[in-house]
Design goal:
5-stranded parallel sheet; 17 strands; Rossmann fold; alpha/beta; binds 6-O-phosphono-beta-D-fructofuranose; 19 helices; 6-stranded mixed sheet
Length: 527
């Protein structure tokens, strides 16, 4: 019998609270003890990745209490319930099935009599067949010429995840001669976004994918009209250039002016939809269906690892637990994701939505107010660029910001240069290693301005190279971490009511149904 309890009702949480400032990483990360922690505090992940938490403020004692919390809070049972299709999204009364979209599971998940695994697989297959036909020239433009560019029109989860994954693999695909079509993205309702993309493509040879789960998103529908207009003005029939990705019940699904419609459904949240047709169509077109399948395989492998009861063998759960310790016990309000990989430049933006839209909640899964803090503010940028930007605050600012580094031993493009005895890749890796120790141990100085307090925790995910499989594992790791944190806080991580109010007010502004300050601001902007 699963019990959904608030975090502050757990005995293990009360024990955890007693362990505030229990580990001083300035000492623990120094000398032989530090070296031992680096070797011992690491957990294998899928696709050859590993999660190293040596520089986090934990030790055996903290890990024991965190492990007690896992049992008391039935976290693995809750994950199994989710995988089995139980209604976890209490706000919208829905199952949560994004893992199912990438999982070859034997057990069927039937929702209203529909085999959901079959459904997701059929849509993946549909996307794959379409991509193969476009690549082979079976599907062409009206003049019989091949399409060579694809533009995704969508926002939020219908943009960020697929865009981050595309950017992550674009150069890898070029280096491996696997880039089938260049992909671009239009998301913002700012007309300059669509205009700039439209000006950069050859319309006659471009496919546009309109992606909206709801089929009602203002930005996406506006941009779709913008693009159709541009196609018509260029003498092209939009029907020959447009694809829809939506849910079967959405208004978009009723349109008949698409080359093909591929479906997802309400059981996959927008921010988790990279593993559905939302990511599947654009990534299969860009890289080919096989590469997309490899992304899903990496994710599925990570999802399986996340079932482990032993937290020292479950990187997703452990990362979630340490995050809760930092947020609720240590009281740190932010976290930063810092990939030392230019290819992951859009990954923090994707995680901003995935994490903050999921866990930025003040009521529990039953709508009751809670009296502890939940999701942290998340931000990030690739290293080393970030070092020359906001790391000053991270090193010497008044707040401690727990950090999540990602680093790879090898780059994606087979090109590098040896300058002053080291390659650029080694310089990149040297920097992330240096940062971990600088943050953890700090440096004393008689000049206070040059003093580094240290005691600033970080973890690092290390991989051989960023490939489709390791990217899929990385994606699933963070999705699963967010899911476990939602379970721990007893919140519903799968709805997003907090985005509605602004949308309602914007509609009023556009309909000129305003008064007071809303009207005054509208007048200032001449709306
Ligand atoms: O406004 C937030 C949101 O609902 C996100 O959750 C979602 O990813 C995005 O809008 C786009 O939604 P849709 O795919 O329905 O257009």
């Amino acid at each position: 019998m699963i019990e959904w309890k608030n975090l502050d009702s757990l005995a293990s949480y009360k024990e955890l609270l007693k362990l505030k400032d229990h580990v001083d990483i300035r000492k623990a990360m120094t000398g032989e003890e530090g070296a031992n922690r680096v070797m011992n505090y690491q957990v294998p992940m899928a696709a050859g990745l590993s999660y190293n938490y040596a520089a986090k403020q934990v030790d055996e004692k903290v890990l024991t209490v965190l492990s007690d919390l896992v049992k008391e809070h039935q976290l693995i049972d809750k994950y199994i319930q989710l995988l089995n299709g139980t209604i976890i999204n209490t706000g919208e009364e829905r199952s949560v099935l994004h893992q199912l979209a990438r999982r070859q599971q034997k057990k069927k998940v039937l929702i209203n009599g529909v085999d959901k695994r079959e459904f997701y697989l059929s849509q993946q297959q549909k996307a794959a067949n379409f991509a193969n036909q476009v690549h082979s020239g079976e599907i062409t433009n009206k003049a019989g010429e091949k399409f060579h560019t694809v533009v995704q029109i969508g926002i939020g989860g219908s943009d960020l995840g697929p865009r981050a994954l595309y950017v992550a693999l674009e150069n890898w695909a070029k280096a491996n001669h696997l880039l089938k079509m260049e992909a671009k993205f239009i998301s913002n309702v700012d007309p300059d976004d669509a205009a700039a993309v439209l000006k950069s493509v050859d319309l006659a040879h471009t496919l546009f994918i309109v992606v909206s789960k709801s089929g009602t998103t203002l930005e996406t529908l506006t941009n779709e009209a913008f693009v159709k207009n541009a196609l018509k003005e260029a003498g092209l029939n939009p029907k020959n250039h447009m694809v829809a990705v939506t849910s079967e019940t959405s208004p978009l699904a009723k349109g008949d002016d698409y080359l093909i419609s591929v479906f997802m459904d309400g059981f996959i949240g927008g921010r988790y939809s990279s593993s559905s047709a939302v990511g599947g169509v654009v990534l299969s077109l860009a890289f080919g269906p096989k590469v997309y399948e490899e992304i899903l395989e990496g994710g599925a492998e990570e999802d399986a690892i996340a079932l482990n009861e032993d937290i020292t063998k479950n990187p997703d759960l452990l990362d979630a637990l340490i995050g809760v310790y930092e947020r609720n016990v240590q009281g740190y309000p932010q976290t930063a994701v810092l990939p030392y990989s230019q290819a992951l430049s859009r990954f923090p933006a994707h995680l901003q939505q995935c994490d903050m839209e999921s866990n930025g909640k003040s009521v529990n899964r039953y709508g009751e107010p809670i009296s502890y803090v939940t999701g942290p503010i998340l931000f990030g940028e690739p290293g080393t660029n970030g070092q020359h930007s906001f790391y000053q605050l991270l090193h010497q600012g008044t707040d401690i910001v727990p950090l999540q580094f990602v680093g790879f031993k090898n780059n994606q493009i087979g090109m590098d240069v040896e300058i002053e005895g080291s390659s650029s890749q080694k310089k990149l890796c040297a920097n992330v290693v240096a940062q971990i120790i600088a943050f953890a141990c700090g440096k004393d100085d008689e000049n206070p301005n040059k003093k580094f307090e240290g005691g600033r925790p970080s973890s690092i995910i290390i991989g051989n190279q960023l490939t489709p499989k390791s990217l899929g594992a990385l994606l699933a790791h963070f999705e699963n971490k967010i899911m476990f944190q939602g379970f721990i806080w007893n919140i519903n991580s799968f709805d997003q009511e907090g985005v509605q109010l602004g949308k309602v007010l914007a509609k009023k502004v556009l309909a000129h149904q305003t008064d007071g300050a809303l009207k005054a601001f509208s007048d200032l902007l001449e709306i």
